[in-house]
Amino acid sequence: MSAETEADRAPRTLLALYDEALPAVYGYFVRRCGDRGTAEDPPDEWDAELDRIVAEQVLARLNEQHRTVLALRYMDDCSVGECAELIGRTVHATEALLVRTRRAFREQYPHREGGRP
């Protein structure tokens, strides 16, 4: 296995920075808004954007077959049968491929403290 590169560490570094800054940012909003409820109501689109960035980096490290089946199934919202037809496999083989692909994606996805992505 090759050594971890700067690009591989970037998502974890960004997550750590976010986790470190969150209390200060939250405190700022509480002081400005006057109450916790209002401070918590502005939607936190940063989490979704950060997840998208990390997911794209993980996808880029997967092999082409894995990227294709994940994109068809979860981005293009194809059924397993449609995925099978598009990649030229049986439904059963496509289901097995999706299981292996999801496992590979989870193994590559950086985990926050506590073991959860």
List the helices and strands and how they pair.
Blueprint (H helix, E strand, L loop, with lengths): L5 H28 L2 H5 L4 H17 L2 H12 L4 H8 L3 H18 L9
Helix pairs in contact: 1-3, 4-6, 5-6
Summed up:
The protein has helices at 6-33, 36-40, 45-61, 64-75, 80-87, 91-108. By secondary structure, the protein is an all-alpha fold.
Observed structural traits:
117 residues, mainly alpha, Arc Repressor Mutant, subunit A, elongated, WH-like_DNA-bd_sf, DNA-binding, transcription regulation, RNA_pol_sigma70_r4_t2
Description:
This protein has a domain at 62-110: Orthogonal Bundle (Arc Repressor Mutant, subunit A), CATH 1.10.10. Helix 1 (6-33) packs antiparallel against helix 3, helix 4 crosses helix 6 (91-108) and helix 5 packs across helix 6. With 117 residues, it is an all-alpha fold. The longest helix has 28 residues, at 6-33. The protein contains six helices and no strands. Helix content is 75%, strand content 0%. The chain has helices spanning 6-33, 36-40, 45-61, 64-75, 80-87, 91-108.
